[in-house]
Amino acid sequence: MTITTKPSVFKNEPFTDFTVEANKVAMEKALEKVKGKLGGTYPISIGSETIDTGDYIVSINPGSKDDVIGRVSKGTTALAEQAMQQALTTFEMWKNVSPAERADYLFKAADLMRQRKHEFSAMLVYEVGKNWAEADADTAEAIDFMEFYAREMLRLSKTHINQPLTPVDGEKTRMAYIPLGVGVIISPFNFPLAIMAGTTVAAIVSGNTVILKPADSAPVIAAKFVELMKEVGLPEGVLNFVPGDGIEVGEYLVEHPKTRFVSFTGSREVGCRIYERASKVQSGQIWLKRVIAEMGGKDGIVVDETADLDAAADGIVAAAFGFQGQKCSAGSRAIIVESVYDEVVEKVVERTKKLSIGLPEENHAVGPVIDQKAYNKILSYIETGKGEGTLLTGGGPAEGNGFYIEPTVFGDVSPQARIMKEEIFGPVLAMAKAADWKEAIEIYNDTDYGLTGGFFSRDENRISTALNEMHCGNLYINKKCTGALVGVHPFGGFNMSGTDSKAGGYDYLLLFTQGKMTARKI
Ligand SMILES: NC(=O)c1ccc[n+]([C@@H]2O[C@H](COP(=O)([O-])OP(=O)(O)OC[C@H]3O[C@@H](n4cnc5c(N)ncnc54)[C@H](O)[C@@H]3O)[C@@H](O)[C@H]2O)c1
Ligand SMILES: N[C@@H](CCC=O)C(=O)O
């Protein structure tokens, strides 16, 4: 194959400015085009076979729930087994393909996705209810992951495939990081393109073969990504696609004795279950499985009395309600120093009331939540919140033929309240008062999670303390706590937020490899 020449320096894909008329028109056209093709069927893909099972996961538009986005063939344990056998066979070939060639498939896929950027984003608008900017950021991040991990593989092939070791007389030594084997990729609904594609390509560019099981509520965008990888000529059997039920397909593969690693992104509950099940050695299994689990968050923003309060209020609202609060990084807690508490609350409520709610394709600030189950759960948390704090705005369903919920703010919430402790994963913000900035940091740290955090202050000493003491994987000073950029803000959390991995970081691909030392007597 012809290897693509790319600049060695990685640059993030720019976000689209939809206030520019030409960009707005291009997105409208893409929405129209994608709308015309909704409702199609998508097969399972194993090696060279595409399989229509006749039994489908029906993906619906959460913002307009009578509209079917597509029907994706539902996997079974028999098909999961077929995919495993295929992935095992292909691994024997793929592990010997050069890093440059493996990286090249990612470069080609990134180029093709860039050409169809608005169409991918339009599909995200329809399938999961992202507004234009959120969808555009998801697509840009998917492109970034491919560009970044391809370059990372090329870099590691120079430094880690034949790594020099401390020299010793009479020996020639080397260290090589080699692929692990067959991996199972289990992805969430909320970044159904970026995280699904990012975790998949990280595993395959490192020389592994995979079975991808996407989220049940966003299988069509995953099917589109699988089509794209076929178009760029990725060898059959490297990426096998088996959508299906979490237990029937996901758990079967997690427990499979030939699974070498699991890359999971999703809730704490499912992540812990996978961690436990994967740790059990099955009959015929000759390794301990590696589990990379990226899980939930109960992220918060701290504001002290020296902060720029308008910037803080902007950051709090953006972090709480971006994509309806359905981000692991969502700032669902705000902890404000008493002397400026009322002022910050007023600014936050004022901004929240101005957020427009409605159809994602019409590009409102707030759209629907993903499905009926999430809708019921979030509304139930709002009812709990009414007994735990003061309802300041929102507080119930919003109009529309979908799963719309008003952006909701509670004030004077006790640090021990459920809405301050549990991940709601919806448009609900809990605000708490702290006596001073030190107490605010203590409240921030009083969580089982540790994913993202924000600290707004103009005091350099306090900022230094916050940098050391706020315990999370991604800490932002004087900015919102969402929106990590690949390569710039390597992403992943502490404690119950995950297994300490850093997606989009310089050590991430090593998680998909194992180190082999050789020492040769000379
Ligand atoms: N830390 C991160 O980087 C990160 C990123 C995105 C989302 N998240 C978290 O993901 C959650 C939201 O996503 P979700 O609702 O799709 O999560 P989820 O845990 O419900 O589902 C995630 C995936 O796991 C599968 N699954 C469910 N049960 C399973 C089982 N028993 N065995 C194997 N697989 C199973 C699902 O089908 C889906 O593909 C939130 O908690 C959010 O914080 C974390
Ligand atoms: N990486 C994203 C969050 C991913 C989880 O939902 C962010 O930084 O906002």
Descriptive notes:
- This protein is α/β, with parallel strands linked by helices and 522 residues long.
- It has 2 domains: 24-295 and 500-521, Aldehyde Dehydrogenase, Chain A, domain 1 (3-Layer(aba) Sandwich), CATH 3.40.605.10; 299-485, 3-Layer(aba) Sandwich (Aldehyde Dehydrogenase, Chain A, domain 2), CATH 3.40.309.
- It has 15 helices and 19 strands.
- It has helices at 21-36, 77-94, 99-115, 117-128, 132-159, 194-205, 219-231, 246-255, 268-279, 309-321, 338-353, 372-388, 418-421, 437-445, 460-469, and strands at 40-42, 44-46, 49-51, 56-60, 68-73, 171-179, 182-186, 209-213, 239-241, 261-265, 290-294, 299-303, 331-337, 390-393, 408-411, 428-434, 452-456, 474-477, 513-521.
- The strands form 5 sheets. It has a 7-stranded mixed beta sheet with strand order 14-15-16-13-12-17-18, with helices on both faces. A 5-stranded parallel beta sheet has the order 9-8-7-10-11, sandwiched between helices.
- The longest helix is centred in the first third of the chain and has 28 residues, at 132-159.
- It is globular, with a radius of gyration of 23 Å.
- The chain starts with 20 loop residues before the first helix and ends with a strand.
- The structure holds nicotinamide-adenine-dinucleotide and 5-oxo-L-norvaline.
- Nicotinamide-adenine-dinucleotide binds next to α8 and α9.
- It holds the Pfam family Aldedh.
